[in-house]
Amino acid sequence: MKKWTALTLAAVMAASMAGCGGGTDAGTTAAPAADTTAADTAAESTEAAADDTEAADAASDKVYQIATDITFKPFEFENENGEMVGIDLDLLKAIAEDQGFTYELQVVGFNAAVMAMETGAADAVIAGMSITPEREELYDFSDPYFESGVGCAVLSTSEATDYSDFAGMQVAAKTGTEGCKFAESIAEEYGFTVVQFDTSAMMYQDVMAGNSVACFEDYPVMGYEISQGMDLKLLDKLESANNYGIAVMKGQNAELIEMINAGLANLKESGKYDEIIDTYIKK
């Protein structure tokens, strides 16, 4: 995706100077000066063209730093072979191949990923990140690539059917997520407290250990874990429907967002998008 600059050089012609006494000499001396100026201009223009070419090459050779979460199944997680996989990472790989850009993945956790982007250590974040009005004030998002929402899970043996059953107890949520935000927004109304964890795995373990009565998380994430044998069940509730997007800092990396959107559209048209989703979420 190189951008080339076309340069047009205008030849500078020396005009003969008219006048009495010495007119010929004036014309003879003026011409070389004009030729020198034209040569200098041509040299400067050639250098400028070379600089533009080098800049275009440098842009095309850029390696984007993209930060992600550690574990947020089925969007990003480590498989049995020690490889980072998931919907987010498979989509990112396919989009990069489609658009011809190169990236390095920073697997650092959700909060650390956002901080890396905000401090300039990362160009973008892909981590099941919900597009919200608050975040849109700080970040530019790609087109939505997944529709999600917050769910609530309890032990498979629990008799709880409503948030009111959590009164006087503790619920778990993952720091910085929409699930955590929603749990905190209803905590006072339903009389429970919210304890936060850095990873989904820690949050689930707290519920299965009996320390927390429930946990709040994006429903496809919990649905995937339950389908893999985790001893929890989802309540028949879906809150805060939202879309996931890939984020960059506001006003920065516009070229990356353009490539992501174009690649995502191509994946959907070709059927590759559905193939990736179906790998992790059975319909």
Describe the protein in words.
43% of the residues lie in helices and 20% in strands. By secondary structure, the protein is of the alpha/beta class. The chain has two domains: 62-145 and 245-280, D-Maltodextrin-Binding Protein, domain 2 (3-Layer(aba) Sandwich), CATH 3.40.190; 148-241, Periplasmic binding protein-like II (D-Maltodextrin-Binding Protein, domain 2). Strands 7, 8, 9, 10, 11 and 12 form a six-stranded mixed sheet that branches. A three-stranded parallel sheet has the order 4-1-5. The protein has a two-stranded antiparallel ribbon with strand order 2-3. The longest helix is centred in the first third of the chain and has 38 residues, at 23-60. The two termini are 37 Å apart.
The biggest beta sheet, please?
6 strands, mixed
Please estimate the helix content: 40-55%
- What's the β-strand tally? 13
Order of SSEs, N→C? HEEEHEHEHEEEHEHEHEEEHH
Search tags:
single chain; alpha/beta; 43% helix; disordered N terminus; 13 strands; 2 domains; 283 residues
